[in-house]
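User: Can you model how KE4 sits in this protein?
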Amino acid sequence: MIYKRSSELFVEAQKVIPGGVNSPVRAFKSVGRDPVFVKEAKGAYLYDEDGRKLIDYIASWGPMILGHAHKPVVDAVVEKAQKGTSFGMPTAIETEIAKLAVSMVPGIDKIRFVNSGTEACMSAVRLARGYTSREKIIKFAGCYHGHSDSFLIQAGSGAVTFGSPNSPGVTQGTAKDTLLADYNDLEGVKALFEANSNEIGAIIIEPIAGNMGCILPKQGFLEGLRELCTANGALLIFDEVMTGFRLAKGGVQELKGIQADIVTFGKVIGGGLPVGAFAARSEIMSHLAPEGPVYQAGTLSGNPLAMAAGLAMLTELNEHPEIFESLENKTAYLHKGISEVLDKHKVTHTINCIGSMISVHFAPDAVVDFKSAAAGDNPTFKKFFHGLLERGIYIAPSAYESWFLNDALSYEDLDTTIKAIDEVASVL
Ligand code: KE4
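Assistant: Here's the modeled complex, given as structure tokens:
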């Protein structure tokens, strides 16, 4: 299907923006077509530049959990904007949203706002290194924590060797301090601690992963990481940029009853404006400037406009926790519908799903880590994506992403989606 206006805009964009986009996944390279340019959005729907309406299952990669242009959020932003958007000086609204976030999330006393999930994760790692005076961190293959150098690392030759950069511009000096483990492989993490005793300052993990599609921790995996960190004097960092305020008020910590040492946030916490945050108990956060020596700063951090959007969003979720149940029921309904039609057409697949996160993998076996996610049949995924897009359904333009449901989706939208998948599956 030709998206004439989007393609014209893409040509223009590429003249002045690298790859025509401000974030690579938007370029639709994984699905081999020009990206769709969005003109506006409302509720569960995107309206593209060619006048088409799309049912949105990405919600701007998570933030738009209540649907697009949600009135309480828009009203808060409009009202605040008229009083000035950023002062570079403290404002009362930062304390208000900080208190609300601290009241919603288990085990945190203080929170620092930044401008993206990357900044939150980068700062959390620096804080952990400063707090422990240790330089090495462990991350997991397939987990994404933003584009800070320490995270753009791929597995080294052996399971216990240092990582190596997976992007030009990242130095070997940085890579040597990032150790790679496989998601759900607790033995591999134990081996890293044994091979690098007293040198590992932190583990950073997506406690429920969303950057390999949606991948769930096996029973005992997160608990094991918690024990290993405690036993080895390392900090456990939960990257809840995707899951925070989405899977529950208190995120995965609440859902799984596991206490991280530092938690990072993004996406939902900003209500669609640029906000990230990291939080911990006071004893850790007291190491952060200007209270302590670990430096971190930002011109627009905590700006009143972004805080107004975030506060309106968190207030709605805090006052209406039934939203989480509604999202879970809608996602379960979609999961059941997709399974039934893919089974009907004998399409080899597996679906991972929790709360309002779901991903469809055209893989023969369970998808439990990056390797099993990569075993998915990508050509089939591309046909699946295109078939749905042509029928007005927007899912992630990559097999390595989770879908994010928003509560503006109706059961009629879900039925429309399931019917579209039924049609597409018949020709996969
Ligand atoms: P940002 O810097 O993009 O706000 O957040 C980085 C980040 C950190 N941690 C997790 C678990 C994340 O998923 C992300 C960003 N997620 C991607 C989607 N997979 C954002 C989309 C994009 O890169 O354009």
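A couple of observations from the model: The chain is about 40% helix and 15% strand. The chain has a mean pLDDT of 96.
User: Helpful, thanks.
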